[in-house]
Amino acid sequence: CEYITEYRNIFITGATGSGKTYLACAFGMEACKRYYSVKYVRVPDLLLDLQEARDEGRFKDALKKYTNPTLLILDEWLLMRVTEKDSANLLELIHKRRKHSSTIFCSQYLEEDWYQKLGGKDNPLTDAIMDRISFDSYKIPIMSLDPEKDISMREVYGLDPSQAQ
Length: 165
Fold this sequence. Notes:
The chain is an alpha/beta fold. The protein is built from eight helices and five strands. Strands 2-3-4-1-5 form a five-stranded parallel beta sheet. The mean pLDDT is 90.
């Protein structure tokens, strides 16, 4: 958990079923064992919560829910392109966490693709967000050694995809 004491982030990238969430939760469990506060959230849920809170005038309280934990795990990071409102909310969250806590970002996309997903050059907040999260982050890319032999974690555990809910 040295990354937590150093206030550094972790990027875990890889294909669906490669074990990103599993690995992030393992980091989270270890942090819990060392008495750090940890929160896990899917980014689509986070964005909905923050925007709803902003619309209802309780943004500051909602933001505390995500800025207070020592470790925040953001799953499904940039699964979809974010709106400018979402970018503003993310910047507020990321800015308040910077140099006070650590965040784990789990994404199907490589870091170099995040710029476009955040709005690219058309969004002035993109540079601010990327600068705050990527400068001193650890990167864990989960890459295939042999795509022909790859199986997802669902297959490893014998889960039938047709039975998924």
